[in-house]
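User: Just a sanity check before I run the rest of the batch. Below are the structure tokens for the first item. I only need the designed sequence back.
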């Protein structure tokens, strides 16, 4: 089950079968979760993607191939798993996109203009 409160910038995803819960308070426009392999980044994305669909949440499970994948989206929480191989063009688009909120899973720094914690 997933829930997303756009106004409060709060995302929760849980699995009743495995009693796992992810509770995330998004702090800015671009949020990056970094971690080594097998730390739960893809598991969380799969939980969200396979849970009940939410109209304001879009999940890309294997990065984003081109800017055209992101361009039609507006006022969404965009979750990108395996973002390590994003092209410079896609990174630039994300950095300049003021219409969406991003939650990005990566193993390495991406050079994004990340919103600072307040």
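Assistant: Here's the designed sequence for the first item:
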């Amino acid at each position: 089950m997933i829930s997303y409160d756009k106004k409060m910038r709060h995302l929760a995803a849980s699995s009743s079968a495995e009693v796992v819960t992810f509770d995330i308070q998004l702090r800015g426009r671009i949020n990056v979760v970094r971690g080594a392999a097998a730390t739960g980044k893809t598991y969380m994305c799969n939980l969200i993607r396979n849970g009940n669909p939410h109209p304001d949440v879009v999940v890309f499970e294997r990065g984003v191939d081109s800017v055209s994948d992101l361009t039609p989206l507006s006022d969404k929480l965009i979750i990108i798993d395996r973002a390590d191989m994003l092209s410079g063009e896609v990174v630039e688009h994300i950095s300049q996109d003021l219409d969406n909120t991003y939650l990005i899973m990566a193993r390495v720094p991406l050079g994004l203009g990340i919103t600072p914690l307040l």
